[in-house]
Design goal:
The protein is mostly beta strands and about 150 residues long. It has a single domain, classed as Pnp Oxidase, Chain A (Roll), CATH 2.30.110. The protein has one helix at about 75-85; strands at about 15-20, 25, 30-45, 55-70, 90-95, 105-120, 130-135, 140-145. Strands 1, 2, 3, 4, 5, 6, 7 and 8 form an 8-stranded antiparallel beta sheet that branches. The longest helix has 8 residues, at about 75-85. About 20% of the residues are buried.
């Protein structure tokens, strides 16, 4: 049975901001890779009489990994990440293919993500420098309604 789906060329939009009300920084033009992993902790609820392990949903688990071209200065990759470093109140908004939400282009918003560390300098002679940042925790929502 064939299913209807949308195939797209990867071109995500990426925005970061402090959840507490700071300025949103659009990092789309300097991001080369973005990945969101979402799930839930599995809590075992096996009891007498069960023939196998039984699990229930626990806390939500979120990880966002962004790979960006290194840039320095106001509103740059390095300055943005530096301001968010060690702060568990980061808001990350990512859509897979453009800024208009729809069923074929859901927008994912992670609030209260934590950036524990990043490498502000990570370069190899003759190559473009890249900065990878991994955000952990928070909660994620999915929006498919056009603004």
């Amino acid at each position: 049975m064939a299913t209807s789906s949308t195939t797209y060329l990867t071109n995500p939009t990426v925005n970061l901001a402090p959840t507490t009300g700071g300025a949103k920084v659009d990092l789309t033009s300097v991001t080369s890779a973005a990945a969101i992993t979402v799930g839930f902790d599995a809590l075992e609820s096996t009891s007498f009489g069960d023939a196998g392990h039984v699990f229930v949903k626990g806390l939500q688990s979120v990880e966002v990994v962004l790979t960006m071209y290194a840039s320095y200065g106001a509103s740059s990759v390095e300055a943005t990440l530096w301001d968010l470093l060690g702060d568990g109140t980061t808001e990350i908004t990512i859509s897979p293919a453009g800024a208009t939400e729809s069923a074929s282009n859901p927008e994912y918003t992670v609030i209260n993500a934590f950036l524990a560390s990043f490498q502000p300098i990570n370069g190899t002679y003759g190559e473009l420098s890249m900065i990878e940042a991994t955000f952990q925790g928070g909660t994620v929502t999915r929006d498919i309604t056009a603004p």
